[in-house]
Specification:
Elements (H helix, E strand, L loop, with lengths): L1 H21 L22 H13 L5 H30 L1
Helix pairs in contact: 1-3, 2-3
């Protein structure tokens, strides 16, 4: 039981760090100079946009890296939610 709580806390903290790393505190309205990027896959317009904006603030991320990070964030979120459900079931018994 304690091990489950420990794992849930670790996953939650990891998820928070991943989320915080992906969010920048910039003004809602601003104008930046970007270099146009072609999307590398037919459904990656969002990744190309993220790359163009990201290049202005923190270059080096490829669209593949952006998509991979987003998928990992989603997986971590699902794992945390799954563990919280299991934890809730353990407490309800």
């Amino acid at each position: 039981m304690r091990e489950k709580v420990k794992r849930t806390i670790i996953l939650t903290v990891t998820l928070i760090f991943v989320y915080v790393d992906s969010v920048y505190a910039y003004p809602a309205q601003c104008s930046i100079s970007v270099t146009r990027r072609e999307q590398q896959q037919s459904n990656w317009c969002w990744a190309a946009t993220a790359q163009m904006i990201g290049d202005h603030y923190r270059p080096l991320k490829t669209q593949n890296n952006i998509v991979t990070m987003k998928l990992l964030q989603e997986i971590l979120f699902l794992l945390v939610m799954f563990n919280l459900i299991l934890l809730e079931e353990d407490y309800s018994e």
